[in-house]
Design brief:
The chain has about 210 residues and is an alpha/beta fold. It folds into two domains: about 150 residues, Alpha-Beta Barrel (TIM Barrel), CATH 3.20.20; about 55 residues, no CATH class. Helices cover about 55% and strands about 10% of the residues. The protein contains ten helices and four strands. Strands 1-2-3-4 form a four-stranded parallel β-sheet. It is globular.
Length: about 210
């Protein structure tokens, strides 16, 4: 198990032992400044936050609402970038083992370079990366560069069904969902779910 996976696993295990959900806080890197972000992370850790999502500011954050959009604008004006975020993580790691997950749109990762971003993320001590607007099957090279996930063509029913099956198998093996949630997941009719998904895609794309 990698150090990052170990940090996350330990934090979730500690939360389960206390019979409570993990508290995951999101902040936009660089809002109001990079120096302030370093202190905000330290304050969140002192307050008992379990995991911090570090949001990389992006000029077109279409998935986010007005609060995060405004925060991204301020952070970009303050000079925050993906490279600066990696530097921030290095600084955090010099004094903390708090689990950190990168939250980024695809564009900053592509501009940085997929392979370089993956290597740097591991080197600086990030525990995970969320690429929030990655189209399914659109960038298969990411799976080969160490950013794990299940990628398959959105209209390939067999591939999508297999990916969903693998995800459910992984969750069951890792024990990362409770028994009741697992029973609900196993009750899904995977082919029917895929059929509905493909029908929706066809309606949306003609």
């Amino acid at each position: 198990m990698s150090a990052g996976a170990g940090r996350l696993a330990r934090q979730f295990a500690a939360a389960r032992a206390r019979r409570r959900p993990a508290f995951i806080a999101y902040i936009t890197v660089g809002d109001p400044s990079l120096a302030a972000t370093l202190e905000v992370v330290a304050a969140l850790e002192r307050a008992g936050v379990d995991i911090v999502e570090l949001g990389v500011p992006f000029s077109d954050p279409v998935i986010d609402g007005p609060v995060i959009q405004a925060a991204s604008g301020r952070a970009l004006a303050a000079g925050a970038t993906l490279a600066a975020t990696f530097d921030l993580v290095r600084a955090i790691r010099r004094r903390s083992e708090l689990p950190l997950v990168l939250y980024s749109y695809l564009n900053p990762i592509l501009r940085y370079g997929v392979a370089a971003a993956s290597r740097t993320a591991a080197d600086v001590g990030l525990d995970g990366m969320l690429t929030v607007d990655l189209p399914v099957g659109a960038a298969p090279e990411i799976i080969h560069e160490g950013i794990n996930g299940y990628l398959c063509p959105a209209k390939d029913k067999a591939a999508l069904s297999a990916a969903l099956d693998r995800a459910l198998e992984q969750k069951a093996r890792w024990g990362s969902i409770g028994a009741r949630a697992r029973e609900s997941a196993e009750a899904f009719d995977i082919p029917e779910v895929v059929e509905q998904y493909v029908t929706l895609l066809r309606e949306l794309h003609g």
